[in-house]
Every structure is written in C-alpha cells, then in structure tokens.
Amino acid sequence: MALYEKITIIGLGLIGSSMARGIKEKNLCKTLVGFDANEDIHEVINQLKLVDRLDKKLSDSVKDADLVILATPVGAYSSLGEIIGPHLKKGTTLSDVGSIKNAVFKMLNPYIPKNVHLIPGHPVAGTEQSGPKAGFSSLFHDRWAILTPADDADQSAVDQLTKFWQALGSNVEIMDPAHHDKVLAITSHVPHLIAYNIVGTARDLEEVTKSEVIKFSAGGFRDFTRIAASDPTMWRDVFLHNKDAVLEMLGRFNEDLTALQRAIRWDDGDALYEIFEKTRRIRKQIIDAGQEQDVADFGRHHED
Amino acid sequence: MALYEKITIIGLGLIGSSMARGIKEKNLCKTLVGFDANEDIHEVINQLKLVDRLDKKLSDSVKDADLVILATPVGAYSSLGEIIGPHLKKGTTLSDVGSIKNAVFKMLNPYIPKNVHLIPGHPVAGTEQSGPKAGFSSLFHDRWAILTPADDADQSAVDQLTKFWQALGSNVEIMDPAHHDKVLAITSHVPHLIAYNIVGTARDLEEVTKSEVIKFSAGGFRDFTRIAASDPTMWRDVFLHNKDAVLEMLGRFNEDLTALQRAIRWDDGDALYEIFEKTRRIRKQIIDAGQEQDVADFGRHHED
After folding, report:
1. Which of A33, A53, A154, B125 suits a disulfide with B143, CB 3.0-4.6 Å?
2. Signed CA dihedral, A213, A218, A221, A224: sign only
3. ipTM score for this prediction
4. Candidates 3.40.50.720, 3.40.50.300, 3.30.750.200, 3.30.10.20; CATH matching A4-175
5. Contacts of residue A269 in chain B, CB cutoff 8 Å?
C-alpha cells in the first residue's frame, strides 16, 4: 500500500539499500528515487534494481518527493541540507536514519524551509557490513525505529512516518532527541568505542603476536570484532556529534572498570562474583524481548 | 581408538560434559569415570549417560586412571590436588581445562607425586551456557587446545595428550604457561571483564531505564551480553589467578581508551577514523583462520 507518492533515499549503503528493498517489497510508494554521491556504486545499485530512478544530481532527486530520507554518515547532513533545502516541496517530510538525533536539528534547521516536516529517525538495526550489496529487506523486522520529532511537529506527518516504519517491519518509539542520544550512547556508541578500542589494543601488542590474537580469538575476543568491523566514517561522525552523552557514559564505564580493576588487584573475589552474577539476567531479558536469538554462542556453526 | 585405558573427568559442566561426549563418540578410552561435587546434577549426568561410572567419592574416581582431567573452576584445584594426589597411579597424566595456566603448577605441585605427569591444558572453546546439559561433542572442533607442559615434561605423555585433543577435533599448540596467560589475558580475560563491566554500567544507569537498554540493545550492546552471561564462579577464579597479566593488558586497554576519549573531546575526527579503519581487517583474518563464521551479524536470524 503506497504511503507516499514519491520517496527519495539519499545514500544507498547498508541502511538505505535495505529500506529501498523493503519499500519495493511492500509497495510503499509509487516512485522510488535514489541518490548516492559515490558514483562507483551506481552500477551495482542499478543492477540490483534498488530504485526506480538513480539521479545524478542531488537537487533533482528530491524534487516533488513526499518523503526524503538521509541515509548517509551524519557528518554530511549540513552540506546535504544546504543543497536540497531550496528544492524540497511544501509539506514534504524530511527524515534520516542517523545514530545521533539532537545534532540533526542543529545541522538541518538552518537550511530547511518552515513548511517542511523535519522528523529525525533512527532504526536501531544494522550489521557490520557496508554498501548496497549488504542490504536486505528484513533488516528492520522486529527491531525498534526511534522517531524524535520536535515538540511542534505536525502530528499527521509523524503518524505517516510511523506507519512507514511499521510497514518495514519495525516497532516505533517516539522519543525526545536528547534522551535518544543518551540511550544510544550506552546501548550502541560506547559499546562500539570499546570494541574498536580492544581490537586496537590487541593489534598493537608486542608480547603477543597478531597471529596468536587471531588463533585464540574464540576465547571471547572475536565477539568484539563484529561491531569493530563497522563503517569507520559513520562511526567517526557518531562520536563527533554525540560527544557529551558519549563522554558521560564513558566516564561511568571507566569508574566501574576501575572498581573491577581494584577488586582484581586486592583479590576481592566476592566483589567480582557479585558483578558477574548479575549481568547474566540481562541477556535473558534481551532474548525474551525478541532482540536476540536464544541459541548458544550466537548460533555459531558447531557441527562438522 | 582408545588412547587411554581409563579416563577420569572431575567436573561435568559445559567443558567436562562436552569432553565426555567426545570421548564416548570417538571411543578414546575403555572406561570413562566422572566426578562432580554438585550432587544436584548427578541425575542429569546419569540420564545423559555421559560417563560409564559416576563416583560419589573423589579419591575413588581417580584410582587407576591413566588420564585425569580437572574441569572445575580453577579456584578448586588446590583442594582437589590435596585429595587426589595420594591416589594417583604412577605414570598417570594429570591435566586440566582451566583458562589460566601459570598458577596451575603452583596450586598442584605441592600435592602431586613426582611420578605423575602434570600437563596443564586449555581448550579455547566454550559457550555462554553452563552445566552438563549445555555440552556437545563438537565444541572443540577446529578450535585450539593449548598445552603448557613444564620444561622437563615427559615427551611421550605430552604426545599422547596431544593426540587426545586432536581426536576431540582440536588443533594443539604447545606454549609456555606464562606466555599463555598473557595471550589469553588479551584474547579472553580482558574481553570478558569489559563485557561484564559494560553490562553492569548499563544496568545501573538512572537516566536510561533497563527496559530501554533491553529494547535498543541491537545497537551493539547485545553483542557484549553473550560473554557477560558466562559462569560467574569460573570467571572470578580466572581473574584472581591471572592478576598480573590481566592488570597489564587492562592498563594498555585503558591507555588506548583514554586516547580515544581525548580524540572525541577535542573533535579529532582523523584520529578516530584512523583507529576505526584498521580494526576491520582483523575480523576478516579471524574468519579466514576458521575461528569465526563469515556471515553478517553472527548469522542472527533475519527472516520472518
């Protein structure tokens, strides 16, 4: 069922191309237009028939669109906004899929006409892979899409965007943008930072060779390498645009880690046990909430 | 093919019961004896027919055994050694599966007769689940088993134990015990500590509710919950017995994390990008080495 006449997706990487596939599969618009600044991937986008029309010019791509989705690294939003702002139709909904939300208003408001509905969004879904080939339409199924409209947002535009994400298979949560940035700092940004960090630490050791790190990674290390394989540009931009919340959560993480470190140094087994014993329950709750699979070892292949 | 006449496994949790299954499947001994101090699980052990005989008395279980494997948390080794020491047969191989190796000699040497071959071992394999029901015979397939014999170890006993682990499906690496403890500190112990820590930090937040942490865990957090669901007693003992190497690796991790934190605070996008870009390759190398599967998102289920 068409929820919009014309949708434009700017950026056809993992998320943009997954949305394009879902939109096509569910016929959520009559015309789907795409734009991607990286011309090297245009052939793949066309081969995969991800969009009805892949425009060469950004300003052309958004003309007459009823919904425009930014699906690029968030660091590009200001320059995108400056280019597309004058070409957006009155009453259009402008949204995005970025992992930070408060800064979106600051970056786009200067360029976006008052008669355009700016409703930032964030589907909490993804894989460690990048690019149009990595996308798939079920990426958003049973995941949460967070919308962070301003207080004075047009309710019917918010409702329509909510239906859109539900049609892609998501649950939708409306949230204050600043609160979003705190929630995601602990559930996503700091975990990525720590994963990048430990993989970096391991790589730089002199006493332990890289081949040893690789051979014995099944001891736990390999679990961190998945999110540490995520797109570096996207993640650079996340940290630069969610500085306050990330630094706050990182401060708490560091305090807690210092306490654990001290417990190890002082042979305080009871303190260690108490912490290790509580964390098990959270995984069970995540599985119960349908946000994780209930098989051991992430269901890694264990048979011959 | 029977590699030993009689094998005794002390502790029939995830690792011990997986070994028992593999031993039975490959007929690696004529008699397989088990002991587990937790009588609550005896019924399950017997129902699953994991061993030929489940002894009630620890000292009985090791009598005439040609191979004795300790598969309990490492904190129990000293008291186990004191009890079994006088009952071990001359020429028996005593090994274990603990995640730390240097301390094993210190804990067991006082109690073990000179004519027993103490050859500590560590299969770098596991899941986040515990207990005899969680085990499976293919757990060790294509994983590495590390043996850390003393310099004066009996070579034929080492060779026989090597064959044993190879028969269970593992690759075998001979390593110096102190070096093992450093390698595993970075590939396993510190990753577990960090995972436990971030799950703990998230649980204790006031501004972000626990239900938000659970709902939006697909942003990356849930990857950490798997190893943070590991057995708390086992992990308490690992940290207490590998203090020096863990504190050293943790110190390096902290230095690197401080550098990342500083880069975020000072908006140094180039420094962030440089680190994030390098870590991707390590995952690919782990996959190429057969220590991780090559599907996105750990192969989590993405279809309806």
Report:
1. B125
2. positive
3. 0.95
4. 3.40.50.720
5. 75, 236-237, 240
